[in-house]
Write a structure and sequence with these properties.
Layout: H1 24-33, H2 35-48, H3 53-61, H4 80-93, H5 95-106, H6 108-111, H7 116-123, E1 133-144, E2 147-157, E3 165-173, E4 182-188, E5 193-195, E6 209-219, E7 223-225, H8 239-242, H9 252-281, H10 296-333, H11 339-366, H12 377-389, H13 396-407
Parallel strand pairs: 1-3
Antiparallel strand pairs: 1-2, 2-6, 3-4, 4-7, 5-6
Helix pairs in contact: 1-4, 2-4, 4-5, 4-9, 4-10, 5-9, 9-10, 9-11, 9-12, 10-11, 11-12, 11-13
Length: 416
């Protein structure tokens, strides 16, 4: 049970990161060097329904969870292009590992909109913070003096086994006047139990299980209204902690889509690796005794997929650069990002997901029947990409419709 923290905050020293001289290129080099190791652990992760403790510790030791964490809180404070390059490199070796990493590290962005007292709680003395998040309201909190007592069950808590904390949305039962009826709370790892109920055809190794709370107290300062005014989020950031972390001033929607787009696009790159390897060792059935890479049909398919994956990656990197440009402008001017600009950047990311999925589909349907084996690694990449592509946040059509609606002054519909 978490105790309340005094509202009078003491002077807080900055937390030094584990490797003060670490630069983005070394971080990416470490991720790329893990590709073969991550591939070798895919089968076990899928069978166990989660990445292993050893794999997660490797990610921790490499500094990956701190890639965009604010420097004041023990992070490296790198930009969004570095983040997406890191996640894509990990996903090339194992999409499930990349999903766990991307989401549990990316939620430092959500944490930044909590009261400063909650952020100090979360980062502690050494800055070790990894938090799954379930944004769907699936629990109930009873208002009590100093906070709320929360109970409930939340599904799809990706990475919950490896988190230090978790962010959960709950409805407030009989809220007091001036208290929002829906809030998001910051809970410690010891506060929740995990119920193994994640059973899917793809992304099985993400541990996206149910978490439960049973009458857990959360102090008021570790909660916030949800959804909050994310478009005005820059006004909530204490400058002494965020002056050298411009990423956190950027718009909410494209950041959250970049978290998962980098996983999908990195996975398509991994699928293309296996596609090429298969060409070099397999020969077609029948009288033609040549390698597949010598046949024009396979050359054409490979070329198409290479173009699709490269274009998806270019979209990911350009959208990330655009995001950082907007973030710097917001920080400098204190003016929020326009809805149109935010939606345009998001559309580019969603188009990247669409292209990556197209490449994966060509790869799977032309690789041969062996890709459909339950133990096929290539088949696993395809299944993983299909499951991610089906996520409600990845629907390009609905996002495009809403961009068009808002551009012409018509209110958006749905959640895209």
């Amino acid at each position: 049970m978490t105790s309340a923290m005094p509202q009078e905050l003491p002077s807080v020293p900055r937390i030094a990161p584990p490797e003060p001289d670490l630069d983005p290129e070394e971080l990416i080099r470490r991720a790329e060097s893990m590709c073969d190791m991550l591939r070798s652990r895919q089968d076990a992760a899928e069978a166990e329904g989660n990445i292993s403790v050893e794999t997660n510790q490797t990610l921790v030791d490499a500094g990956f969870y701190r890639v965009v964490q604010p420097k004041a809180f023990g992070g490296y404070g790198f930009d969004l292009p570095t983040y997406v390059r890191l996640i894509a490199a990990i996903s090339r070796g194992c999409p499930e590992t990349a999903w766990v990493l991307s989401l549990t590290l990316g939620h430092v962005y959500q944490l930044s909109t909590y009261p400063l007292a909650a952020q100090l709680d979360a980062y502690g003395q050494v800055g070790d913070f990894r938090a799954p998040e379930v944004a769907a309201r699936q629990g109930v909190g009873v208002a009590v003096p100093g906070g709320y007592r929360v109970s409930g069950a939340w599904d799809y808590a990706s990475g919950s086994e490896h988190g230090t904390h978790i962010l959960l949305v709950f409805a407030v039962d009989e809220p007091h006047p001036n208290v929002d009826s829906v809030r998001m709370g910051l809970f410690d790892r010891r506060d929740y139990e995990i119920v193994r109920n994640w059973n899917t055809i793809g992304m099985q190794g993400t541990g996206s299980d149910r978490v439960t709370l049973d009458d857990i107290f959360v102090p008021e300062h570790r909660t916030k209204p949800y959804p909050d005014a994310m478009g005005m989020r820059h006004t909530l950031l204490p400058p002494e902690f965020y002056e050298d972390s411009p990423l956190f001033h950027g718009p909410f929607r494209p950041f959250t889509i970049a978290e998962s787009a980098s996983v999908v696009i990195g996975a398509a790159e991994g699928a293309l690796d296996l596609y090429e390897e298969g060409f070099r060792v397999r020969r077609p059935a029948g009288p033609i005794k040549v390698s597949r890479y010598e046949l024009s049909e396979y050359q054409l398919n490979f070329g198409k997929c290479r173009a699709l994956v490269d274009t998806a990656r270019a979209a990911l990197l350009q959208a990330s650069a655009d995001f950082m440009k907007v973030a710097h402008e917001i920080q400098a001017t204190n003016e929020p990002c326009s809805d149109e600009v935010e939606r345009r950047i998001t559309l580019v990311l969603l188009q990247g997901i669409e292209l990556a999925h197209q490449a994966a589909d060509i790869i799977f349907r032309t690789a041969g029947s062996s890709a459909a084996r339950k133990d096929s690694m290539l088949g696993r990449y395809w299944r993983n990409i299909c499951v991610m592509r089906g996520h409600v946040a990845h629907q390009l059509d609905s996002a495009a419709i809403n961009f068009g609606r808002t551009h012409f002054g018509v209110p958006p519909v749905g959640i895209a």
